Each structure stands twice: as C-alpha cells, then as structure tokens.
Amino acid sequence: MLSKTIIKKNEYYDSVTLMSLSSKLSDIEGVEEAVVAMATKMNKELLAATGMFTAGVEQCGDNDLIIAIKAISGERYEQAFKLVEEFLTSTTKQKKRKEQVPATMTSALETMPEANLAIISVPGEYAAREARTALDNGLHVMIFSNNVTIEQEKALKEYGREKNLLVMGPDCGTAVINNIGLCFANKVKKGNIGLVSASGTGLQEVMVLIDKFGGTISQAIGTGGRDLREEIGGIMMIQGLKALWQDDLTEVIVLISKPPAKSVEVAILSILKDIKKPVVVCFINGNPVETEKVGAVFADSLEAAAKKAVKLAGIKEQVASNKEELAQIIVAAKKRLNKEQRFLRGLFCGGTLCAEALYILRKHLAGVKSNVAEKGEDKILDLTKVEGNVLLDLGDDQFTLGRPHPMIDPVVRLERIAREANDQSVGVILLDFELGFGSHQDPVGITIPAIIKAKENAAQAGRHIIFIGYICGTKQDRQNYDEQKAKLKAAGVIVAASNIEAAKIAAKILS
Amino acid sequence: MNSQAERSKRAVCFALSLDTGFNSFLNSIKKEAVMIGQVHSVFKRVVNFQDHNQQIYSILQRDIDNQPYSIRVDQSGFDNFLELPISVGQAVIIKNGSLEIKGAFIIKFEQRELWEPEKLKIYPDQTTVSLFKKNIKIYNKCLLLSGVNGGGKYYYLRNHGHLKRLSTPSHLEKELDRRIGSFLFKLNNQAKGLKDSILSIIGLGNGLTPAGDDFISGFISVLNLIQEPKVSLTLQQIKEILKNNDLSTTELSLTMIRASLEGRISENLKDLIGGLVDSEDLHLVHKIKQVFSMGFSSGTDLSIGVVIGLMYGLDILGKWRQIDVIKNYYQKK
After folding, report:
1. Per the CB < 8 Å rule, is A46 touching B77?
2. Which long-range contacts (CB under 8 A, 24 or more apart) does B9-13 make?
3. A2-100 placed in CATH 3.30.70
4. Are residues B61 and B175 in the same domain?
5. A394-416 pLDDT, tens digit each
6. Which domain does B216 fall in, by range?
7. Structural domain boundaries in chain A
8. Looking at the domain assignment, is residue B55 inside a domain?
C-alpha cells in the first residue's frame, strides 16, 4: 500500500471542482482512498487517522489544498497523480481560455458573424432575453435552459415564426441539425428521415432505432416539452414540420410527442392534409383515428415510429429477430425469483423512456406508479415511500437539484439501485443508458459495481434480482456501444433492443 | 475580436444591494483613490477581496442571494468573473466613488440598496414547536432526496431520519457523525469538554467551507434568533469558545463563522429558518432547495446546522428546560 500527498499552496478551487476530483480519484481501480480537502487541523487529524498523513502535510497551512491518495501500488498512485495534474491543469487552462470565450450574444456574433444558430444555456431568467437577441440577429435558437415562463416561450415562438426562424425549447435537450448533434444527441448516419419532437429522450430513442434499423436522419428538431400545450399551440412543431416539408433532404417526416391538447392536434393534423411527404405521427398513448383520417401513419410507441419511418423510406429493416432467445431468457429469469419478489422498479435517466415504459407496463402489471404519471392514482407523490411497481424518472427536478442530470453523472441512480435492491418484494430492476454527445463517458461502466453489489447483497439474503438494461445509443457514438453492451451482459444483465422491449421483458417476467 | 482593454472597458457593474457589513466598510473609507484591499479568490460568480484587517468581502453576481459582508451587482455584459483579467493579490481601490479592480471591472454605487432584513425572532412556545414538528417532515424528505452526501447528511439521517438502512458512510461522514453527536451531548448535559467538542468540528470536511464549519454556522445562526435566556447563554458559551481560540480553518470559512457569531445571516438561510417555524408555508420546499443549492455540499450542511439548532433551541433534542443552564454558566465563569 502506498500513501502520498500532493500539496497545492494557497490554491483555491471551487467546491464542485474539488468534489469532482475526489470522486474521479475514488473511481480509479486500485485507489483505496482519496481525500481532497483544505489543510485544516481537523482534516490533518483525519488524514492521520486514516494512515494518510505524510511529512509534507505537517507544513501545510489552513489555506493550502491537500490531495491525499492511498493506492495499492506505485503504478496506481502514478495513474491517480496524473489524473490530478491533468484535472487541475485543465481547470486552470479553462480559466485562461475563458478569457477568449464570448460572454454575451453580441460578442459571440462579433466572433462568429457567419453563425446561423445559437444555443442558449444560461439561467432561465436570462434565457428569453438572450434568445430574443439571437432572433433579432437572424439566428435560429435552441434554448437548453429551463425556467423560462410560458408567456416568454409563446412570445419568442411567435417572434420566431414571424421571422421564419426555429425556436427549439425552452428545456430542449436534443437536436441534430445538418448531421451535427446539439446538446444530448446521438451520432447517426446522414439521410432522409426528418424528426420533430417535443421530447428529448423520445427523439434520441427514435433516431437511435432508425439508425439501428438501417435508416438515416436528415434533421432532428426539438421543440421543448410544452410546445403542444394549449397555451403555445404547437407553434414549433408546426414550424418544424414546415421546415422538413421544404427540406430537400427529407423524404419522410416523424412527429413525436405525448398526446397534444385537442386544439393543437387539430391544427397539426390540418397541416398534415396538405403535406405531400409521408408522415408518421407518434403520440405516445394517443388515439390513431384522427391521424389516420388525414392520411398520416400512426405509431403508438417510439419503436413503432422508427420501424414505420424506415419502411416508408424504402429501407428493409436490418435487425434479426431474437424472439426465441428472449423467450428462453424470460423463462429462466422467472424461475429464479421467489414468491415474494413480485414487483418492478424502473430507474430511468430518460424521462420519455420512463413515460413510454409506464404506458406499456400499466397494461400488463397492476398498480404501476411513477413520478411522470399524469393520472392521479398512478402518480407517485411521496418518493420516500416507494412500494409495489414503480418507475422513477431520476432526471426530474426532485432528484437533480444541486446535482448533474443522471445522463451526465449517474451517481443519483447508483444510490437508488442499492436502495431498491434491498426491498425483498423487488424482483426486477429496469435501467436505461443513454449514449451520445453530452452523456456520461461510460454510463454502463459506472453503474456495473452498483449492479454487482446489489446482486451480491440480494444473494446473501437468498434472493436473485433480475436486471434489465437498455442502451439508447448507436454504434457510432463515442462511448462504444458494443463495449457498453458487453459490460452489461458480463454482469448478468438482460439487454433489450429497445426501451419498449425492455418494458415488455419486465412485464413477462413478473406476470 | 476586441482587445482585452476594450473588453474591460465594458465590464462596468452597478451595485444592486449590499449588507450592513459591506456598507459600513464603504462608509469607513474617507479618502479617494486608495487601495482598500487585495483580491483573495475568484470564482465564476463571486470575487472575494480582503481588507487590511484580513476581513473578506464578497462581490456576488445578481442571481446569488444577499449574504453577510457582500455586495450584489448587476453584471450585464458578462456572466463569469473568471473571464475577466482578475488575479489573486490584485489591488482593489476606491476611485471616483466607485470600487475598481484595475483593468477588470468597476462597480458603480449610484443605485445601491441597503439589505437590512428585519431580525427574525423565534419564541420556543408550543405553537412554534408544533409548527416545526410538522415542517420538519417536509425537510426530512427533501434532505433524503436532494441533500448532498459527504458531510453532515449521514449524521442527520442516522440520528433523526428514522431510517433503518443507510449507504456506507465515508470516514469523514463517520467522524462528523461522532463529533456532532459528542458536541450535542455535551451541550445538552452541560458536560465538560464542550470546548474540545466544538473545536473538533471546526475545519473538518472537504471544500472551501468544511462541512463541520457549515454545520456550526447554521447552528449558531438559529440560536441567535431564539428568544429564551437559557438558549442565549448556551450561545454565549459557544461564542466565547469560538472567539477565544484559534480556529484552524480556511479564511473564507472563518469569515462565515465570524459573520454568524455577529448574528449576520444570508437571505436564503433566513428564509429557510422562517419557513421551518411558519404555518402553511407553501414555499417551504423551494426555500429548502434554495439553501441546498448553495455551494456544493455547504447548503446541505448549513441547513442541517439550522435544523439541529432549532431542535436544540425549541428543546426538542435536549433538556435545557431541565438543566439550570444559567447556574452552570456562572459557575464556570
């Protein structure tokens, strides 16, 4: 065992930097303990108590930063040391580099006058003002920020429509424009299917499945989750639809959303009558009748939307059926559960994936509750009392305050896996993993120890927990899809081919 | 692209609000064009500077709440102090009635407003106790779901969260649990060793304001508000210990502890305390989360100090009603 300290004299880093470094060091295999703290007397005592006190620490003052690392070997220590240097250097470099980063929309436009799209990611109260400036300057806008009022949203979208510019958002996390992924997006092949979606992970799921089925994407436009509400009137869904209608590359159009307000649905469907390109309408949990009346194709799930779009694009679906293999896996899994293990816990990073799973599972399992449910009796209000079949969107504000979204840092879910697996009534845990730009660099890798630990704990208590995982990603994504899948399989996780398939597997095991 | 000099010309801020500590400091400066301090540290939304008496003052962006010894500024035109050419040790001067960090930015004071909140008074009667007991259930849920781990959360959930199982604590969390427990035992029982138990918490924890300091600061902040002589004497004991001993902690944390000893409190923390003893506070969850969002784990630890302070001050935790605190205090003197 090797214990050494790195000392940074009179250096201040904000707490988030220090905590992130501490967490990254602890993640290194072979690093037994890592403490990143200011050199106060009590912290020095703590180091002494954990056997991490070194000669250099004695000389440190209260305002010096100590990074103490206990590693199993010199090699592991060197690996950790390198990470510290890289991490803190990059933080310092970022500080210097930031001097050249434009601070306002005006200075950004001076830097890049040829830009035609602005991504706004500032606190909500300032987002509308910055978006307005961008629109004033003739830029399309993607507003990543939330907490923009609905009145501001409406005003921006009306202004955008007047200027024939897109206003994607607010709270828009995913778009692909001219094959460039914005915010959370997957790397997909460029092609002829255009998407407009009021849901972020819904959009990701459809583009990923289209890619998997052999299809290609022209544009993927996000509208923000409130666009199809009565107050907004679907302004951006309609704008997006018209943009894709006029886009030469796009041959098939897919619309994705929860069922819109009735008046908005009527407005959208009336436009569809005139569009000469084939359109797939995926309103999850929606009614197909009105859609089919105007000649569009209805899809009741994200997977169905992807399949139908690929078919309309004239491409033969390129995925081999795994039905027999799955049937065997389900039979085997059912046998391993005891009588008490009757319930499911879905721990989702993607909100729409959670909503879609809820829509499927409530048809097959009794009393499924969720924090994304809209109906009174299905809505789980007290998150400290989770009982029965429950699906949780861990990206909801209730879980993410003061923390990164679980797609960026899945720590919040790791804690939850341990908690739910300890419940004797739980038989199946359902997990989603999002790959692509913006997402964690190894979402499966960071989750595997929690899965293994949960299984071990359950085994000690005489139970076997079934984990079902779905990876929302493409083979082109930076996280290496195949490696992610292999890691899940190696940990004994059943890997589904789509979100809906994951939900159906869970239902079959428990019903 | 403009030159740096041109960009810095645009970095003019207008003071929005300042607390009485910052205001007194400004009023004490009688000369023009004098150096009043040096930059201590720079973060994205905060610049700290230290005066000649080693007191730290903070310049905060407008989306941060009012804080002790701080000024909030409208920084239209930039949103990141790290983008400005500011370095540690740089001179802070007062010139032409404005505060200036040369070459970086100027703060104009024309429209400043003094933030001087009315002092909250908490009376430990049955009504307050029953309101607090109702509200604490909401706090507990918020802490469980949104509180940041790594500091006092483990202590709180283990001792007051009524949870059977908790995730494995870090060494630091276990130490904080033990030391906070020891501090409260000594306080409740007027036992010997109170001084050592308080000092063993100060400086313990990660970050620029260690978790132990945040806890103590929140605890003191509440005791300052409780209108009960026995509680005031307890507070006096704590104040004397903290004032008469060298505290081994960071300069930023020392400033925070000193401010709480003086009864200075941040806007969000005051709102939280008010909410915890108020009836029908529909915004309590928001107030709790506002405090949780302070720093990385600081807000969580401050709030735990506040809640434990209320439990002590309202005599839910302990037994100051049964112990002759006054007699003990004067015997020790």
Report:
1. no
2. B10/B77, B10/B78, B11/B75, B11/B77, B11/B78, B11/B84, B11/B104, B11/B105, B11/B106, B12/B77, B12/B105, B12/B106, B12/B108, B13/B59, B13/B73, B13/B74, B13/B75, B13/B105, B13/B106, B13/B107, B13/B108
3. yes
4. no
5. 988 778 765 678 998 888 899 89
6. 126-332
7. 2-100, 102-171, 191-319, 323-510
8. yes
Which of B88, B115, B142 terminates a domain? The answer is: B115
Please judge whether B248 and A42 are an interchain contact, meaning their C-beta atoms are less than 8 angstroms apart: yes
Could you tell me if A473 and A395 are in contact, meaning their C-beta atoms sit under 8 angstroms apart? Answer: no
Is B121 within the bounds of a domain?
Answer: no
Number of domains in chain B: 2
Instruction: Spell out which residues of chain B touch residue A37, defining contact as CB-CB under 8 Å.
Output: 205-207, 210
The interface predicted TM-score of the complex, written ipTM, equals 0.76
d(CA A402, CA A327): 42
Residues in chain B: 333
Quick one: B43 and B67 in the same domain? Answer: yes
Q: Provide the residue-wise pLDDT of chain B in tens; the chain has 333 residues.
A: 334 434 444 478 889 999 999 999 999 988 777 889 999 999 888 999 999 888 999 999 988 999 999 999 987 667 788 888 888 888 999 888 889 998 788 999 887 889 998 889 999 999 999 999 999 998 998 888 788 888 999 999 988 887 666 667 888 888 999 999 999 998 888 778 899 999 999 999 887 899 999 999 999 999 999 999 889 999 999 999 999 999 999 999 999 999 999 999 999 999 999 999 987 767 888 899 889 988 888 999 999 999 999 999 998 876 656 665 555 555 554
Helices B298-313 & B211-223, crossing angle to 10 degrees? 40
Q: Which residues pair with B250 in a beta bridge?
A: none
Nearest to A15 among B88, B207, B292 (CB): B207
Whether B230 and B297 map to the same domain: the answer is yes
Q: Tell me if B207 and A19 make a contact (CB, 8 A cut-off).
A: yes
**CB contact B150 to A (< 8 Å):** yes
Chain A nearest-CA residue for B145? A399
Q: Indicate the CATH number for domain A191-319.
A: 3.40.50.261
B61 and B142 fall within a common domain: no
Q: Look at residues B256, B303, B317, B290 and name the one whose alpha carbon lies nearest to residue B67.
A: B256
B63 in the same domain as B175: no
The residue of chain B with its CA nearest to that of A122 is: B79
Amino acid at A340: E
Q: What is the 3-state secondary structure (H, E, C) of A335-392?
A: HHCCCCCCEEEEEECCHHHHHHHHHHHHHHCCCCEECCCCCCCCECCCCCCCCCCEEE
Name which CATH class applies to A102-171: alpha beta
Q: Of the candidates B87, B115, B143, which is a domain's last residue?
A: B115
**For position B7, what pLDDT does the model report?**
41
Closest alpha carbon to A222 in A143, A159, A297: A143
CA distance B322 to B319: 5
Q: Residue A179: its pLDDT value, please? A: 87
pLDDT the model gives residue B4: 40
Check B203 against A42: CB less than 8 A apart: yes
Residues in chain A with pLDDT values less than 50: 96-99
- Chain B residues close to A15, C-beta within 8 Å: 206-209, 295-298
Question: What is the structure's pLDDT at A41?
Answer: 87
Say yes or no: B41 contacts chain A, CB-CB below 8 A: yes
Backbone angles phi, psi at B225, to 5 degrees: -100, -15
Structure tokens at A231: 């107050």
Q: Quick check: A18 and B206 in contact, CB under 8 A?
A: yes
Q: A44-62: per-residue pLDDT in tens?
A: 888 888 788 888 888 888 8
CB-based contact A37 B43, cutoff 8 Å: no
Residue B37 and residue B274: Cα distance in Å, rounded? 35
Query: Which of B78, B203, B205 is facing A103, going by the closest CB pair?
Result: B78
Cβ of A38 within 8 Å of Cβ of B208? The answer is yes
Token couple for B81? 């102090």
User: 């319930």: which residue's tokens?
Assistant: A343
Per the structure block, which two tokens stand in for B200? 């063993």
